[in-house]
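pasting input
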Amino acid sequence: MTPDYIESDCYKQQSEAVRSRFERIKQRPVLLEVEALDKIFEDREEEIVALDDISFSVHRREFICVIGPSGCGKSTLIRIIAGLEAQTSGNILLDSQPIEKPGSDRGMVFQSYTLFPWLTIKKNVMFGLMMSKINRRKATAEAMEWLELVGLSEFADLYPHQLSGGMKQRVAIARALANQPRILLMDEPFGALDAQTRAQMQSYLLQIWRSIDITIVFITHDLEEAIYVADRILVLGANPGHLQEIVEVPVPRPRTPDQFLSPEFLSTKKHLEDLINPEKRLMSEKIPIPRMTSVGDEVF
Amino acid sequence: MQNWFSIRLSLSERTNFWLSLMAFVLPLGAWSAFSYLPFLWHPQVLIQQAGGTYFRKDDRVDKKDFQQENQRVARDGGQQAVGRRVNPSYLPAPHEVGKAFYIAFKTPPRRKGEKWLHQNIWDSIEVIFWGFALSSVIGVPLGILCGSFSFLSRLNEPFVDFVRYMPAPAFGPLAVAILGINDAPKITIIIIGTFFQQVLVIANTTRQFDNSLIETAQTLGADRLKLIRSVIVPGILPELYRDMRILLGWAWTYLIVAEIIGAKSGISLFITQQAKYRNYDNVFAGIIIIGLIGFLTDQILGLIGNQLFVWEEREL
């Protein structure tokens, strides 16, 4: 819980460097455009509105996070962008072209590592390259370069089950990037990792993002993670899933873990907390905790 | 000791080895006990000297009859019969069956046109092989397709599921009428017994395949054909291999039925003939041979599987 003395609107006050960075980003071409997106699931007679009128655009090399309470449809949103599910209405344009089915121009990293267990690490990274019919030697060379980038070239001939969770996810990132997609979609990619590995992976991802031309849309339920990595944060609300606000993160780049306690960081976090769960404070007071035991009288 | 009964306890390799050995030693021990300890069971008496009784030498008579007859003879002042307690001839002792193993292979056919035991066994293996191979050529791809495409699954599986409940042996007379009395109807029975199960089992295995891997491959640019060839098939391979091992076991159980259809052949011919000649030790040898072939094939396939799928995460 963020301390009370942090004012929740000072996230809007951007330093000069941050403001000018956002201006530069807005001048870049729009890479992904989502217009009036609706998704309705039909469940027998019931209709469940998963996404209601979602619109936003992502500029080239921007890092966008999507957060929201569970059931807000953030996974559905990213799956529609990936082409794994069809929208009910609305448009998604990538480089002004409508999206219809999955394609190698949109790389995806899932929470469950989804490495092909029967392929070695190297061959996993080569998978997309082999699909695009380039020859094996060239694919191998490129795969090795990507493994180098994520620091796993010495594990090239191991199988996925021999790697740790963090390493698996690095391979998954290398595999998605090897296809040279226009955009990288990440669905809670670090959600299954322990806290320490997760922090490492966040820094790692920022490094990779800085060194290559890639735009990232990143889903997470971890507010600190979102503030740490994102340029802008899409805050979705639930029932039905709708876009509440797009928050411009006022924390200057390059980001470091030290910034977690900076006023910009804390005020952004507080604002996000309020957006996602406005009744949180009240709730904690409302939940009655019955006394179940006579043991522990000395504990306060 | 009480630890052995903790639920899902994992045992050391040594313990596993000894337990597996005991799995065979215990039943063999029980069999030996019944065969060699005269006070266990042994309900009959083998007559050694008939004396004044109406028995003849080498007769096997019930213990009760033996005692009654001896009492009768004793009352009349005649000589009592002498015998030793034995089991019925249909339960030969382990060493007799062991000997039969050797002798069965060495016994030349009684009549012209009959075959040596090893030729009979080879016939059985051929029938199994062709039945299983022919079934798999269609069953495996069809199963994978049914597991991949829901419309094929809906179109095929209800009927397959229906036919599966018709016992394969019931098709025997029909198969003979259509295909004659030689190997063709036998192979057909194996196919009928295997194919329908095969399609359902493999379709199910294919359906269990992790959907997120399919989605991942799609986002990496795999088209439909490549999804099946480069993702689904290699992904289900270890599971498919295990299915095939189990199905092969089922095929063996249909063998005996298949072989007595039309002109009897193979190992069942040997077993039925020997039973007719009352060579029960040979009968046991025949049954054990079938078990051994099936068991060894499965063990060897298991070992090969371990070598083939090094990428699999295994629980040890």
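fyi The longest strand of chain B covers residues 44-49.
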